[in-house]
């Protein structure tokens, strides 16, 4: 089946506007009235100057026939078919079918293989009628929904949100309890470490006190011994002096 833009129905004003724009773009590069005559004369002059025998501009018509009616469009160069029926040529490699869905079939408009567009001009630049009908039907179905169904859906959504919030709050509570337990265990460990530190400090202080007491006792003993020694020496010196005085007294007499 052949799909043409001109044969398709235009159901809205936007489609008519886009169709007119497309026709204007197609006719933009064509020459009209006096310009066509001048262009033809220039072409004849060029062909006459380049070749001895002027080119008569012979064109070949398309070989495609449908129901006994032949297509009279000009052929693509070096082929036997026009641009519409070029896909009938099984040897050609430059064109492929559009393939866009259209009226339970696929569009067979030829598209160049080298072009990046996947579809033909109509299906790549303008939205198809089927897609618009589907969108309109979906919008009408959405509008025709009863408010009861919407309220039920809203209630279901709210109940689901409440359940999710409750689950999240329970999970947070459990996490907080676990954190408190961990913090309590950590505090107990800190208290035990503080008690151990206090005990160690006390033991160190007691050891230091004992050392100081022992040192003081040893110092006191040394001082007493030295004092006793000095006292003995003084007694001996006094006795010697008394003896000397007693000895010297009668001698002097």
Structural features, described:
The chain has 253 residues and is mainly α. Among the domains are: 14-41; 93-140, no CATH class. It has helices spanning 13-26, 34-50, 121-125, 129-143, 147-252, and strands at residues 65-66, 69-70, 95-97, 101-102, 105-106, 110-112. The strands form three sheets. The protein has a two-stranded antiparallel sheet with strand order 1-2. Strands 3-6 form a two-stranded antiparallel ribbon. A two-stranded antiparallel sheet has the order 4-5. It is elongated and about 175 Å long. The mean pLDDT is 77. Keywords: Chromatin regulator, Isopeptide bond, Mitochondrion, Nucleus, Phosphoprotein, Ubl conjugation. Residues 68-124 form the KANL2-like probable zinc-finger domain.
Largest sheet composition: 2 strands, antiparallel
Question: What is the residue-mean pLDDT, rounded to a whole number?
Answer: 77
Task: Give the helix proportion (percent range).
Answer: 55-70%
Which structural class best describes the helix and strand composition? mainly alpha
Please count the beta strands (DSSP E, at least 2 residues each). Answer: 6
The helix/strand order is HHEEEEEEHHH
Q: What is the beta-strand fraction? A: 5-15%
Spans where pLDDT lies below 50 across 5 or more residues = none
Shape: elongated
Cross-sheet strand order for the largest sheet: 1-2
Rounded to the nearest angstrom, the radius of gyration is 60 Å
Distance between the termini: 178 Å
Number of helices: 5
């Amino acid at each position: 089946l052949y799909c043409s833009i001109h044969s398709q129905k235009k159901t809205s004003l936007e489609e008519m506007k886009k169709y007119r724009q497309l026709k204007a773009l197609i006719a933009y590069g064509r020459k009209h009235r006096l310009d066509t005559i001048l262009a033809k004369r220039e072409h004849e002059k060029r062909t006459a100057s380049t070749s001895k025998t002027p080119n008569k501009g012979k064109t070949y018509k398309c070989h495609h026939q449908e129901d006994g009616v032949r297509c009279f469009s000009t052929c693509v160069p070096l082929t036997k078919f026009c641009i519409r029926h070029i896909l009938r040529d099984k040897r050609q490699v430059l064109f492929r079918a559009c393939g866009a869905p259209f009226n339970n079939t696929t569009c067979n408009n030829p598209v160049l293989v080298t072009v990046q567009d996947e579809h033909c001009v109509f299906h790549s630049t303008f939205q198809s009628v089927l897609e618009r009908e589907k969108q309109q039907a979906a919008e009408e179905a959405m509008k025709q929904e009863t408010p009861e169904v919407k309220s039920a859906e809203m209630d279901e959504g709210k109940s689901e949100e409440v359940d999710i919030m409750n689950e999240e709050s329970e999970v947070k509570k459990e996490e907080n309890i676990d954190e408190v337990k961990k913090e309590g265990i950590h505090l107990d460990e800190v208290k035990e470490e503080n008690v151990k530190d206090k005990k160690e400090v006390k033991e160190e202080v007691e050891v230091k006190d004992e050392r100081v007491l022992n040192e003081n006792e040893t110092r006191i003993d040394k001082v007493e011994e030295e004092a006793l020694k000095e006292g003995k020496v003084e007694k001996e010196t006094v006795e010697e002096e008394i003896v000397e005085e007693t000895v010297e007294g009668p001698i002097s007499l």
